[in-house]
Write a structure and sequence with these properties.
The complex is a heterodimer of chains A (about 400) and B (about 290).
Chain A (H helix, E strand, L loop, with lengths): L1 H19 L6 E7 L6 H20 L9 E7 L4 H15 L3 E4 L3 H14 L2 E4 L16 E3 L4 H15 L3 E7 L2 H17 L4 E8 L7 H10 L3 E4 L4 H10 L4 H4 L1 E4 L6 H7 L7 E5 L11 H12 L8 H18 L4 H8 L3 E4 L2 E4 L11 E7 L8 E2 L3 E3 L3
Helix pairs in contact in A: 2-12, 3-4, 5-6, 12-13
Chain B lengths: L4 H32 L6 H19 L2 H22 L9 H23 L15 E3 L4 E3 H23 L1 H11 L1 H6 L4 H23 L9 H16 L4 H21 L7 H12 L11
Antiparallel strand pairs in B: 1-2
Classes of the chains: A alpha/beta (about 400), B mainly alpha (about 290).
Chain lengths: ~400, ~290
């Protein structure tokens, strides 16, 4: 009799577990960031944000207290082909439930294509090309990063407030540059009435000599310049443009997150005047009650008080996975899709909601002028304005 | 656009600054070819190494001119070792062996740069005193680029005087014409060869250091420059100093105005220019027809 009771209890337990399906199981996330080569400057911090979110969740016993996250990280080397192969391998060999990451628009589109074919959910945390959530949209791709339309509107609105009418544009000649230019063109009539782009320059990606372009902008007599030269490219551009008196002549409004602390701390006193730009996150700006504890923990991990703006992107991606699994109570792709559509969570940079139709989160960015500070050797954004993504 | 005086003025200066910087680098290539008859593919790698060495010295010592000198010195040392240990064994072989050797150097030095400095992009600030703009009436122009415009002719004149007015120059010119005869006359020809290779590499290194504030430093920066140098040398005539000077100026003008006036043709223009010169004067503008 005792045996019978024991056996039936065991059966009951098994049945109960089977009904839950996912309890006790862990969720496998494939994280795709460039952690070597030139992309590592941003891929490294992105991986850090990812790990921070995963460790926070696992410290509490996993998602909903019972589903721990296991990360399978792969280096994309900033190459679409490498990223696509890694995504495929993560799905077929490791059996990951969700793909996350992608840095550069080309890499993001490559991962998205694998996700579509293999029917696995992909959360794009960094790529911004508008194509991903428009012409190349499919049920399995979601974007928590902003897109080039959102960023283009930020540029147009900022320029509109500054009142410059005669504009020059300088963009990189690849997907991101083209899409951002289109985003600006779409938003300009509404956000900056009367403003017109009179000179449109396309620069080969990888160019390090901007002197000819700088001279052309200088002689075109523009009041404002809109741009998307990002990362190290802006540092090089600014260094070459400053001696021409460029930044005294024009108001420079740029996407590409050149207001982020990564760039400001690298350029220090060499950061030019008259630059308005954007950032994903600013260590000195508390946009949400969650920001202070987030920033404190990030600072502890990086071993410095002033942290960069890239880790928050990957951090938010993991948090969306957490919320989706909690809501879906399943790790099945279809259930996760249903959960992600319309999902809304509070993040360190404010509330983020994924649109059910476009699969795009309403991720806006912080915009403002970069000011000299008395107490620091690097510039800071002041005042900070949040331009929302919807 | 061409009727805009500011545009013309600024872009002409840009073209001259670029051309003069390229000339200093290409002068080394043409010098080595003229005397050693070796086509040095690694010249671009020497240029890149010069820029990186300059960057490191500026980071450590904070002085740009020290960086330029250090880059020249470092490349001279490296070239001395390469010539003594390896290259001099290949003079007697067919040109293909030398070509392959210098190409191997490109790969080795390229990876060495990645190992030492990584693949991050670096920049070098304009040197103190030349970081400002100069008011030229029509427009402001960076002092450092003006300095480059002036430095090119000075280097050209100095090299010309060295080649034409000194004993060393006479020996180098003689080595170009007949190395056996020179050896018979009791001149240490291997030493001459070594000296020329070292001088050529030092020019590439200093050219790289001088280019560092004008550009950004990336591991792939050698690929472009070696092509540009060959275009210059082919336009000007292999081994001709003034040919390289003129070739560099022409390439500077084509590159700068091409990039802004016909951006779709930017990549093709320098090659089209080279092709046109080759069809018209196969031996280059200042070269001598052979045979």
């Amino acid at each position: 009799m005792k045996k019978m009771v024991g056996l039936s209890l065991a059966v009951l337990l098994v049945v109960a577990l089977a009904q839950k399906g996912w309890a006790g199981e862990s969720i496998k996330i494939g994280a795709l960031y460039p952690t070597s080569g030139s992309g590592a400057v941003f891929g490294g911090p992105a991986m850090l944000g990812h790990q921070m979110a995963v460790e926070e969740i696992n410290a509490a016993g996993g998602i909903d207290g019972r589903t721990p996250i296991v990360t399978f990280a792969r280096d994309t080397k900033l190459k679409p082909a490498v990223a696509a192969a890694a995504a495929k391998e993560l799905i077929t060999k490791e059996g990951v439930n969700v793909l996350i990451g992608g840095l550069s628009s080309a890499v993001g589109l490559a991962i998205s294509e694998v996700a579509r074919r293999e029917k696995v959910v992909y959360i794009a945390t960094i790529p911004k090309t508008i194509q991903m959530t428009t012409s190349k949209l499919h049920p399995y791709v979601f974007r928590t990063a902003p897109n080039t339309d959102i960023e283009g509107r930020g540029i147009a609105r900022t320029m509109g407030q500054l009142g410059a009418k005669k504009l020059c544009q300088i963009q990189f000649d690849y997907a991101y540059g083209h899409d951002l230019a289109a985003g600006i063109a779409k938003a300009l009539p509404q956000e900056a009435a009367g403003a017109e782009i009179v000179l449109d320059l396309k620069v080969k990606l990888g160019t390090t000599d901007y002197n000819a372009y700088i001279a052309q902008i200088m002689s075109a007599g523009c009041e404002g310049v809109v741009s998307g030269l990002w990362g190290a490219a802006f540092i090089t551009f600014a260094q070459q443009a400053r001696p021409f008196g460029f930044f005294e002549q024009v108001k420079y409004v740029s996407g590409g997150e050149i207001a982020s602390h990564e760039i400001a701390s690298k350029m220090k006193g060499n950061y030019p005047d008259n630059v308005w730009s954007n950032a994903y996150e600013l260590w000195y700006h508390d946009a949400s009650p969650l920001h202070k504890p987030y920033q404190k923990e990030l600072a502890r991990r990086q071993g410095q008080q002033e942290t960069g703006g890239w880790p928050v992107l990957s951090y938010i991606g993991v948090k969306f996975v957490e919320a989706a699994v909690t809501k879906a109570k399943s790790l099945e792709a279809e259930a996760l899709i249903a959960a992600l559509e319309g999902l809304s969570i509070e993040t360190p940079v404010g509330r983020r909601t994924i649109d059910a139709k476009t699969h795009q989160a309403n991720t806006g960015q912080f915009w403002g002028p970069m000011k000299k500070m008395d107490q620091y050797e690097f510039r800071m954004m002041d005042p900070v304005t949040y331009i929302p993504g919807d | 656009m061409l009727t805009n005086p500011t545009f013309l003025f600024l872009q002409t200066l840009n073209a001259i600054a670029l051309g003069m910087n390229l000339f200093i680098i290409a002068a080394g290539l043409t010098l080595i070819f003229g005397v050693l008859r070796v086509i040095n593919f690694a010249h671009g790698a020497f240029f890149m190494l010069g820029a990186y060495v300059c960057y490191s010295i500026v980071e450590q010592a904070g002085n740009f001119w020290l960086g330029v000198l250090g880059a020249g010195l470092a490349l001279a040392l490296l070239a001395w070792a390469i010539e003594r240990a390896l290259l001099q064994r290949l003079y007697a072989r067919e040109p293909l062996a030398q070509l392959l050797f210098t190409f191997a150097l490109v790969l080795i030095l390229g990876d060495a740069v990645k190992m030492v400095w990584g693949s991050e992009q670096y920049s070098v600030a304009y040197p103190a005193g030349l970081e400002r703009a100069v008011d030229l009436g029509i427009a402001h122009y960076p002092a450092y680029l003006l300095f480059l415009c002036g430095l090119g002719p000075v280097v050209a004149l100095a090299l010309w005087l060295l080649l034409e007015r000194t004993r060393w120059g006479r020996i180098m010119r003689a080595a170009r014409q007949d190395r056996e005869m020179l050896a018979v006359l009791g001149i240490n020809v291997p030493l001459v060869y070594n000296g020329v290779f070292v001088a050529g590499a030092a020019l590439a290194g200093m050219g790289g250091a001088l280019a560092a504030p004008r550009l950004a430093l990336t591991p792939g920066m050698d690929a472009n420059i070696v092509v540009e140098c060959f275009i210059i040398v082919i336009i000007g005539g292999l081994g001709s100093l003034w040919g390289s000077f003129l070739g560099a100026l022409i390439l500077g003008i084509v590159t700068v105005f091409g990039a802004v006036l016909v951006p779709e043709w930017e990549m093709v223009l320098p090659y089209a220019l080279m092709l046109a010169v080759l069809l018209w004067r196969p031996w280059g503008l200042f070269g001598r027809a052979q045979g």
